[in-house]
Each structure stands twice: as structure tokens, then as C-alpha cells.
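Appendix B. Raw example, untouched.
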Amino acid sequence: MSVPQSRYSANETARRGDDIYERTIRPQAEATHHGRVVAIDIETGAYAIDDTALAAVRCLRVRHPNAAVWFVRVGHRVLHRI
């Protein structure tokens, strides 16, 4: 199984994903989805929210199979911490 190559640099993906999250998703998601994961297609602005990153991206890819994805955990600065 091959891994698709990203169309964007890591910095560009993060910038676009964070911008979409802050402008359109955060105001709606913060109140009801705290702690859940958002998978965002940085090209279309489409997104899916679920309990895990894997579940969220699976849901998003049903609608947008070639999505360039950025993840955000609602109410947190990072998705995972070490």
C-alpha cells in the first residue's frame, strides 16, 4: 500500500487548517464537542468531528476521498502530547 504524497508543505497545511478551524469550525464546535477531534480538508473547508482522528478522517474521506487533512482537538492547542 502506498502513501499519497502531500500537495502542501507541513507549514502550509498547518496554516490553512488552523485558519479554517478558527474562522468557521471553532465557534460552532467549542460548546458541544470539547475534546473531540476535527479532521479538516484544507482545500474545501469540509470537516468531520469524531472521538478519534482515525474515525474523523474516515468520515471525511467518505465525502472527500482526496482530502488534504489537518487535525485539531476541540478546546486544546494540540492533538496529542508526549
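End of appendix B.
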